[in-house]
Amino acid sequence: MFGYHRDLFAMWSTRILKLVGIFILSALGLELMAVLLRYNRKKRTKLQEVLFFPSRVTCVYPSLYVESGKCGCKRSHADSSIMRLIRHLLSTRQSLDLCLFSFTDTELSSTVVLLHQRGVRVRVIADSNYMALNGSKIGILRKAGIPVRHDQSRAYMHHKFAVIDKTVLLTGSLNWTSQALLENRENLLITNDEALVKPFLDQFEELWEEYDPTKYNF
Amino acid sequence: MFGYHRDLFAMWSTRILKLVGIFILSALGLELMAVLLRYNRKKRTKLQEVLFFPSRVTCVYPSLYVESGKCGCKRSHADSSIMRLIRHLLSTRQSLDLCLFSFTDTELSSTVVLLHQRGVRVRVIADSNYMALNGSKIGILRKAGIPVRHDQSRAYMHHKFAVIDKTVLLTGSLNWTSQALLENRENLLITNDEALVKPFLDQFEELWEEYDPTKYNF
Description:
Two copies of one chain form a homodimer. By secondary structure, chain A is of the alpha/beta class.
């Protein structure tokens, strides 16, 4: 009789211990998964950078045209705000949406044309007052086959933002001009925080539709 | 003998079960605390807003001068981008750091003077080329007793950002002019994400020192 109870007790103790063990292992497993997921999400959302200008004058052409990242010229090849901006742009794989008041800088327009030649879907929204000014690169972009749309009003399309692959936003005071890059005090905020990127994506699509050339009404 | 073993087994089983129970409860408790902490932190850091302009024309004076938030005028009192901007500014308690290329809007300068009168420590960095243009409010701010500093170069101090209470950043393409607020296409990103606010705070302090009037060197 005691033997039976004892066996029963031992059996249930073992079962309970097993269940508890399974429970603990499951809980730890879930927790580990949660930690990994959070880590992964954090890693994905943690692009938060602010670039300030004027930038140091550096040679950026190696980033564009030389595999090794080095060239023989005598300008500095150190890291600079303009170099970082160009590296971000060169990371584009699928789409680049540009919404720029003023675009006159040669290095940045070379970068955009290069991306277009690589098969990136580039779209540009420009300001109608500034796109035809002396030095504007809008004509060069158009000639390269990049679609450009612009506002039809005397007020300014004053945005200065870019969205890379629908996920990375670059926005700030910086026009894409040599004076802005190399002389002025300017800022450029770079983030892939979806809550900040999405409103700009929506704004781009809204303006892209509004500035459809088949709807011109001068 | 068997009885002794059985008691020993029962005693240890109970102890192990108790330990396991304590372990599980502690783990759950810790997890709950972690969740609450994360929730709290999330709640604190979740100011992420993007305002687009041109804004609807709305009456903003109730926000400034009328306790009830209502007035008898015939303009719209609906929510607008300019209203939201002014509400953010009016939430300032201790300090307002403004770094603005162009500042000509009357409603925004009234807001800043009001904050100064409330005892908020307002500091303004302006562009030397634009601060003396017709319509600039920089003179009015100075006359009200707000300290203003400016660059000493022909290049532009082209920033357009504000930091509220060292914790909330407002930055974008928007100059504080009526044309920007009511006619242009503009953006203003608002965040209290420390990783984005801190670089702007540092930039403000750096420029504030650099533009110290005792260091003028025209």
